[in-house]
């Protein structure tokens, strides 16, 4: 496990006993390269990740998918696949957000998942499949960090439940995509403070922070 995770307050009976990156590899999630994923805030309208000194990490949403959802099994499956794709993307983003500054943390230092929200595109007021669409996101997240609906669970149980999260999934949104999830996770406060002290609280990085970590 990560060195910060090992020193966390998580009780022994709730600690993960697997390497998150082993699961990422088995799921064929491509984490990409530093060059492709670590950028500066120049010309940015918003940020993608925020670190709070308490250990909370906020990830901005990302919209993706074939378009409006409606109550059709095959269409909902398409939405679930889009939601899974976004989960993969956010796992990649979170990896680089935690690791890019060289403070010694990585995804194994994620303590647990706090909250997710899924905003599902559907103008049909009778549509009630938003939670089903968002399940594609939640199940992939549990597959990586642990949970009874993940791909590594057996009989509804996993060896960890740090991927399980409080959640809202709401339809009624407009857009040329299917779903936009957001998520909040918790990392050890000591790690969050080291990140903030070294390179700030925000991703993409400020130009000064980017120069600092790339000149190491």
**How large is the count of helical segments?**
7
Q: Supply Rg.
A: 17 Å
CATH topology term: 60s Ribosomal Protein L30, Chain: A
Report on the biggest sheet.
6 strands, mixed
CATH architecture: 2-Layer Sandwich
Task: Outline the fold blueprint.
Layout: H1 3-6, H2 20-26, H3 34-37, E1 49-51, E2 56-59, H4 73-99, E3 112-121, H5 130-145, E4 166-173, E5 179-186, H6 189-199, E6 202-203, H7 207-214
Parallel strand pairs: 3-4
Antiparallel strand pairs: 1-2, 1-6, 2-5, 3-5
Helix pairs in contact: 4-5
Question: Could you list some keywords that capture this structure?
Answer:
216 residues, 60s Ribosomal Protein L30, Chain: A, six-stranded mixed beta sheet, 7 helices, globular
Write a brief structural summary.
With 216 residues, the chain is α+β, with helices and mostly antiparallel strands. It has a single domain, classed as RutC-like (60s Ribosomal Protein L30, Chain: A, 2-Layer Sandwich). The chain has seven helices and six strands, in the order αααββαβαββαβα.
Describe this structure as you would to a colleague:
- The chain has 216 residues and is α+β, with helices and mostly antiparallel strands.
- It has one domain (47-214): 60s Ribosomal Protein L30, Chain: A (2-Layer Sandwich), CATH 3.30.1330.
- Helices cover 36% and strands 16% of the residues.
- The protein has 7 helices and 6 strands, in the order H-H-H-E-E-H-E-H-E-E-H-E-H.
- It has a 6-stranded mixed sheet.
- Helix 4 (73-99) runs parallel beside helix 5 (130-145).
- The protein is globular, with a radius of gyration of 17 Å.
- The chain starts with a helix and ends with a helix.
């Amino acid at each position: 496990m990560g060195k910060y995770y090992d020193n966390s307050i998580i009780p022994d009976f709730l600690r993960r006993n697997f390497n998150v990156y082993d699961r990422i590899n088995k799921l064929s999630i491509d984490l990409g390269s530093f060059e492709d994923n670590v950028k500066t805030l120049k010309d940015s309208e918003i940020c993608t990740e925020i670190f709070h000194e308490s250990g909370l990490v906020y990830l901005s949403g990302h919209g993706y998918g074939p378009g409006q959802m409606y109550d059709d099994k095959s269409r909902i499956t398409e939405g679930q696949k889009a939601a899974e794709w976004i989960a993969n993307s956010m796992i990649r983003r979170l990896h680089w957000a935690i690791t890019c500054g060289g403070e010694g943390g990585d995804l194994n230092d994620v303590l647990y998942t706090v909250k997710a929200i899924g905003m599902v595109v559907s103008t049909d007021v009778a549509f009630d499949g938003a939670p089903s669409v968002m399940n594609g996101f939640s199940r992939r997240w549990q597959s990586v960090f642990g949970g009874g609906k993940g791909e590594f669970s057996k009989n509804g149980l996993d060896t960890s439940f740090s991927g399980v999260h409080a959640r809202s999934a709401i339809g009624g949104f407009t857009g040329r995509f299917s779903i936009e999830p957001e998520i909040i996770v918790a990392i050890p406060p000591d790690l969050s403070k080291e990140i903030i002290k070294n390179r700030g609280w925000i991703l993409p990085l400020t130009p000064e922070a980017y120069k600092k970590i790339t000149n190491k």
